[in-house]
Amino acid sequence: MFFAAAWGNYGYSGTVRLLRHICRTMRQRSGVDILECGSGASTILMGILAQRYGCRVVSLEHNAAWVRHMQVMLKRFRLPNSSVLHAPLRSHGRGEYQWYTWPAALSERTFSVVVCDGPPAHTLGGRFGLLPVVDSSLADDCLIILDDTQRLCERQAIARWGQLRHIGTRSHLALKRFTEIAFLPHRAIGADIPPQVASQEGTMSA
To answer: What letter does residue 202 receive in the DSSP assignment?
Structure first.
């Protein structure tokens, strides 16, 4: 809580345990491209770790004023391995959901880790848009870390993702504040086994 208040975007910053988990993941997956949806304190932390582990981090942010702030922060802390791009929210899927405008500059990139802490909860479709919009830019072994999965809309997004890809999930913390989503070998659209949010930390279920 103090970390979020000090950063200045209280209510939008990731929890300390989520940030620790991101640290572990970046250490385990050194040298990869990482996509962050939303930006804030985690962006600075990931920028520092990106230099240590040889990763490259791209953060999408819909708020233009916050983009400018984050760009100043990255420059101030000299974090060249990280960038924040302005990606306004727009309608996708015939108006069924909203998601970031996917920057053309990222069309040739392949991301092995996604940290999804945006867009905000009131966005139409929640965070469902990640998979249908970005799927072609995700590695076969991509790991998605989805924050705020104590909220119904994020759990619904996971269930809908299970109709697009065969995935496994692992929930962290008793309140299920964040969940890992991994692509499983069977990649057929409309997987037979729907995802279930694991009831215990450390259990991956399909």
So the answer is: T
